[in-house]
Amino acid sequence: MNRSILSVLTAVMAIAVAAHAGSISGKVSGVAGESVVYVDTIAGKTFSAPAEHPVIDQRGLLFQPHITVVLRGTTVEFRNSDNVAHNVFWPSIQQGAKKLPGKNLGTWPQGEKRPFKFDQAGAAALLCNVHPEMAGYIVVSPTPYYVTTDNSGNYKIDGVPDGQYNVVAWHEGAKTQSKAVAVAGDGKADFTLTK
Amino acid sequence: MRFTHWALGFCLVGVVLAAGPYSQAIPAFSRQYGTSCSTCHVDFPKLNDFGKAFKDAGFKFPKDDETFMKIPPVLLGAPAQKDIWPHSIWPGTLPGMPMIGLRFNTFFQVYGRNRNNFRPANSTDPTIPRTDFQPGLFSIFTAGNFGSGIAFWVDDDFSVGGANSNGGLGDGYLKFHNIGRLFKLPNDSLNLRIGQFEIDLPFSPARSWNLSGWDIYDEANFGALNGANPQNVNNSFAFSSPGQGVEISGGHMYKGYHYSLAVLNQNTSGTTAPGDNVSPTVGIFSDSNFKDLYGRFQYRFNLEKDAASRNEIQAAGPTGPRDHTYLQLGTFYFYGRSVQRTNGESGVLVAREPFYRTGGDFSFNYHNLNLFGLYMYGHDKNLLPNADGTGFVSGVPAHFNGGFLEADYLALPWLMAIMRYDRVQSTADFINGQSGNSTNFFSPAGSTRDRITPGVQFLIHANIKASFEYQIRPQQRVFDGDGNPASSPFRTNQGVAGLEWVY
Fold first, then answer.
1. What is the DSSP string of A12-62?
2. How much is the ipTM here?
3. Which residue, of A61, B168, B339, B454, has the greatest Cβ tally within 10 A?
């Protein structure tokens, strides 16, 4: 009986929260393939990193997935699934106009993982110093409001509370762009990125 | 006139040295696996430890090869066909793409200021210019694997020095890897190679990364029947020449032991029978019944303390995998017979002169520094025609020795500095230089030729390289047959710049 009451209360609260949350949608153009769109830092708000650790795999001489988006503070596990030696490093983390120092995680054998906690928001190119053609990307969002576009550049970020935000669009081959967006129910932001 | 011959000969040697043993890398593998040249090469075509393991495995990734191929092979039979063999053809594969790579290189040379000092005064013969642009090689090479551990390699020069189709076949062979498994021998302990190939030298001149070849590999042994110790040797064999035959080998180049034993055509005269009366008449490469023998053994000690890292293909460094710190020691021995036919009093006399080449080598690698060297001794039995022209008597053997010492330092992934010393001492050269038959010779009046060659190489991209070297030689002078100076002293120093790309 108590459990039923709790379920009903939870559902009611969820509906109430959703009623105050909107979305941001739009299109990223000017580039081919997937982009990442996220809401930039919200003053006075912090978000807890998820307990689960996403995995970036080195498999078949590729970083898989090619692009990973995580919330700031998330621990990412880097796994080597290949039967050759790999390495993971990033020369820097691009945070707006700033370049934060990179990191070299070293090397580890097939089947093993190495964790790293991303405390800085920004985007980094993941490289392997043995196989220079390999590249993956990690985008560290300061808020949980992020999404990867489809291949045509369309995106929609759900669950964004009403308010005024800076929305950032990132693409691996283009200059990062940000826009102020007002969300009152729904917000719209289209980006045209340039190289 | 003879001075002109020397000048032209000198230029020719320069061209051959500069263009001959230049590099060969395999862009086809980059395409097949979707990976960079630098996966296998340090400053191509110099192999890193992974490249050595790739070659050891028969041009395949040493483990889980199929998971790395971006272009899967074409099956020439389902693997299950093995179950019904011999009632089916053993299934193999074709590479899923034509495994073709091309390369081109071009050179600019600068000769020493006194390069023409050995020309006689008032000569109107062509001079050696101060500088010269030279087209190099345009080559095709193809290599890969047919499945079942059967690897192939063919390379051929379309043109050399800008001329058409006068380069010729380099290596062309099929290699059956790990056939020891058929006899329950340890893994990778027995391979079989058949075709034309460069013998298993410690440091390959055919795939050298230097602009000029290592001198000792080009040393033939041509004596002369003059002087106090005449030499009836006419042996054109040099280590840089490809051989035709079969080879068994085993072990690995990146750790532990490696050996090879080869049986090869013997051809020391440089000529062959026309073969008109035998079939097929496509050509005869041997000039005698005897087959030459070559053997090599090396052992490489990887020096990492951690056993797991020591036995891996590449060592685990603090910031990524790297080539091992290692010491490699090796030895080699070549045995052949040089055949000479002359007219004697009672018919054709045939001298079968045994010869051998032997030596040792080492290579030490520490992080980005690779120090290596080789010493070789060559010995030809010298059978001189006897006084009445009916046979031969043993003379003083014709021998030579020499080698090289080289240090390569990879300052940056795209920048390698090189320092090299080459030396050749040859009694045959000495006799030729001191001859009484008016053959002039570069000297000082000794049997030693040596040079110091600093160089630097830049990778513009992983497949484009700019190389520079400066060959510093001791002062020389031309002497006439009586030992009198016939020229002013001069140095044949030479600067060479090369640009090479493979695709």
1. HHHHHHHHHEEEEEEEEESS-S--EEEE---TT---PPPSS--EEEEETTE
2. 0.71
3. A61
CB nearest to B316's CB, from A82, A107, A132: A107
Sign of CA pseudo-dihedral B423, B425, B428, B432: positive
Radius of gyration of chain A (CA): 19
d(CA B284, CA B199): 19
Q: What is the CA A69 to chain-centroid distance, rounded? A: 2
For residue B327, what are the contacts with CB-CB under 8 A and spacing of at least 6?
Answer: B300, B301, B303, B362, B363, B364
Q: Which amino acid is at B77?
A: G
Closest CA to B396 of B385, B384, B410: B384
Q: Which domains does chain B have, with CATH numbers?
A: 2-63+99-309+320-502 (2.40.160.10)
Q: Give the separation between CA B394 and CA B231, rounded to whole angstroms.
A: 10
Chain A residue closest to B71 (CA)?
A60
Q: Scanning the structure block, which residue is given the tokens 């996403």? A: A54
* SS3 state of residue A9: helix
User: What pLDDT, in 10s, does the model give residues B20-72?
Assistant: 333 444 789 999 999 999 999 999 999 999 999 999 999 999 888 888 888 98
B344-356: pLDDT as tens digits: 777 888 888 999 9
Please tell me what DSSP assigns to residue A48: P
Report CB contact under 8 Å: B34, A86: no
B404, B59, A61, B139 alpha-carbon torsion, rounded to 10°: 70
DSSP-derived 3-state class of residue B288? coil
CB of B227 within 8 A of CB of B210?
no
Please report which residue ranges of B359-502 form alpha helices under DSSP H. Answer: 427-433
Angle at B485 between CA B479 and CA B488, to 5 degrees: 105
Q: Which of A86, A106, A132 sits opposite B36 (nearest CB)?
A: A132
> Within a 13 Å sphere around the CA of B367, how many CA atoms are in the beta-carbon half?
5
SS3 B119: coil
B35·A61 Cβ contact <8 A = yes
Name the residue among B285, B262, B292 with its Cα closest to residue B192: B262
Sign of CA dihedral B69, B70, B74, B75: positive
Pairing mode of beta strands A75-80, A98-106: unpaired
The reply to whether residue A133 touches residue B36, judged by beta carbons under 8 angstroms, is: yes
Question: Which residues of chain B neighbour A89 with C-beta distances below 8 Å?
Answer: 319-320
B465/B103 Cα distance (integer angstroms): 11
- Round the CA-based radius of gyration of chain B to a whole number and report it: 24
Question: So what's the pLDDT on residue B480?
Answer: 61
AA identity, residue A2: N
Cα–Cα distance measured from residue A104 to residue B23, given in angstroms and rounded to the nearest whole number: 33
CA B259 remoteness from chain centre = 18
